[in-house]
């Protein structure tokens, strides 16, 4: 990537801005009926981050996917400055298409400060040397190299898997956090399915999603994404996720609930 050519994620965050409203054109077509949720989540975080001081970095986000986004229609991100503090800023983001809300997000930003540095011992679901390359049938995955377990032969990449961006991403904490948010939506929905259910059966959709950013993220480096199913009830499946670097350091944690109608 040359210094004059922005990365693909930086291009997705190249908004037209009117005050605290940010407008982003969307792809004209894709593999499914709705826009990829990770894309809208990443753009919502990017819009929120444009309204805070650069020394405050993404700390966490919590969002609801209200309805599916449509291809080829601009998305407006309306940012509400909920609170500006000395250490933390809080933002609420509403994403709309043609006046209809498709996503609601609350995001927090924090000035880094010294403190304890501890994590629960890592879970190792698949060794890198055992994992094999895969190209999932999802256009949004084209920006990434993905390595999965040898027995993962379906259309989608099912965690645990290894993942990295194919291209270098700008050394910018907000852009890299948006990249992590984008890729964190790969994998939770398949894991949230009822046990033993064929991924090709039924209807599935993400309902809500959360990310906690723990440590610096380098998108071009390999990371392992572990996702664990916690519960299935009322046609909803709940999962938690953990993103580790090659040294076993916990970079981010996630959670998601998905709708599975069989």
TrEMBL record:
Acyl-CoA thioesterase 2 C-terminal domain location: 161-257
Residue ranges occupied by any Acyl-CoA thioesterase-like N-terminal HotDog domain in the UniProt entry: 29-110
UniProt KW Methyltransferase keyword: no
Single GO term (MF): fatty acyl-CoA hydrolase activity
Pfam families: 4HBT_3 (PF13622), Acyl_CoA_thio (PF02551)
GO biological process, alphabetically ordered: acyl-CoA metabolic process; fatty acid catabolic process
Superkingdom of this protein's organism: Bacteria
Keywords noted in UniProt: Hydrolase
CDD domains, per the entry: Thioesterase_II_repeat1 (cd03444), Thioesterase_II_repeat2 (cd03445)
PANTHER family referenced in this protein's UniProt entry, alphabetically: ACYL-COA THIOESTERASE, ACYL-COENZYME A THIOESTERASE 8
Family label: Belongs to the C/M/P thioester hydrolase family.
Protein name: Acyl-CoA thioesterase
Lineage: Bacteria, Bacillati, Actinomycetota, Actinomycetes, Mycobacteriales
């Amino acid at each position: 990537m040359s210094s004059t050519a922005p990365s693909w994620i930086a291009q997705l965050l190249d908004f037209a801005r009117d005050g605290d409203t940010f407008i982003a054109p969307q792809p004209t077509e894709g593999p499914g009926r709705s826009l990829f949720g990770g894309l809208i989540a990443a753009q919502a975080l990017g819009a929120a981050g444009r309204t805070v001081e650069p020394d405050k970095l993404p700390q966490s986000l919590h969002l609801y996917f209200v309805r599916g986004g449509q291809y080829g229609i601009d998305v407006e991100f309306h940012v509400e400055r909920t609170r500006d503090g000395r250490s933390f800023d809080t933002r609420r983001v509403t994403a709309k298409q043609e006046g209809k809300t498709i996503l609601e997000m609350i995001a927090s930003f924090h000035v880094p400060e010294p403190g304890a540095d501890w994590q629960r011992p890592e879970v190792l679901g698949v060794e890198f040397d055992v994992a094999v390359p895969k190209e999932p049938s999802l256009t949004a995955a084209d920006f990434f190299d993905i390595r999965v377990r040898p027995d993962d032969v379906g259309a989608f990449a099912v965690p645990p898997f290894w993942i990295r961006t194919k291209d270098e991403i700008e050394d910018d904490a907000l852009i890299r956090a948006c990249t992590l948010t984008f890729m964190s939506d790969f994998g939770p929905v398949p894991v949230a399915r009822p046990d033993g259910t064929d991924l090709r059966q039924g209807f599935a959709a993400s309902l809500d999603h959360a990310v906690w950013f723990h440590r610096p993220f380098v998108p071009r480096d390999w990371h392992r994404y572990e996702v664990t199913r916690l519960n299935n009830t009322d046609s909803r499946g709940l999962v938690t996720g953990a993103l580790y670097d090659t040294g076993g350091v916990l970079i981010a944690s996630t959670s998601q609930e998905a709708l599975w109608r069989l």
